[in-house]
Amino acid sequence: MTLRLLVVDDHPVVRDGLRGMLGTQPDFEVTGEAAGGAEALTLAEALRPDVILTDLRMPEPSGGTLIRLLLERVPDTRILVLTTHDTDSDVLPAIEAGAIGYLIKDAPREDLFRAVRAAARGETVLSPSVAALLLARVRPQWSAPRALLSAREHEVLTLIAEGRTNREAAAALFLSEATVKTHLLHIYAKLEVPDRASAVAAAHRRGIL
């Protein structure tokens, strides 16, 4: 069975990359591409794809609003979010709107392929950082201290606390070393500390780690 896919992203390079990547699989067919929410709605109704892979922050409608509108118009289509954003304000509205899966764009290609097939079967697929965020939401007594950091920042800090270098943390999370350094700077700012050791100490003191 060939799965018919619609790719929605406002960056042409990303759309081209996804089309090329997905096209390597014999059971995938990218039937259309959209650069924004309005175009996605039109194409979804016309093409009736099995799975829509969509970013969240695009020309309106976007995010949870776009997902709700898509499911109103093509209720049998599965929505798989593929984005760089894994904060509460992005993840929760998307899941609540009806997205069956949520992947971060740095996921390995094999994970993306598995996610598309699982979504088509009606199975929920989540990146580890997103799963951790949702688990934290249903366990508030555990999540309250760590809510200060995003799920990705918590992953980075956990690896740093284990003694990993920036390069090792980047490899473990399939990120660039520069991205890990950016996450660390955000962590320092949020914890009001100057360096790695202080960040780890502060995180333990606050119950984040």
UniProtKB/TrEMBL annotation:
HTH luxR-type domain boundaries: 142-207
UniProt domain Response regulatory: residue ranges: 4-120
Alphabetized InterPro entries for the sequence: CheY-like_superfamily, NreC/VraR/RcsB-like_REC, Sig_transdc_resp-reg_C-effctor, Sig_transdc_resp-reg_receiver, Tscrpt_reg_LuxR_C, WalR-like
Keywords, alphabetical: DNA-binding, Phosphoprotein, Transcription, Transcription regulation
Record PTM 4-aspartylphosphate, positions in chain: D55
Matching CDD domains: LuxR_C_like (cd06170), REC_NarL-like (cd17535)
A Gene Ontology BP annotation from the UniProt entry: regulation of DNA-templated transcription
Pfam entry (one): Response_reg
SUPFAM superfamilies according to UniProt: C-terminal effector domain of the bipartite response regulators (SSF46894), CheY-like (SSF52172)
Gene Ontology molecular function, alphabetical: DNA binding
SMART domains membership: HTH_LUXR (SM00421), REC (SM00448)
Name the record gives this protein: LuxR family transcriptional regulator
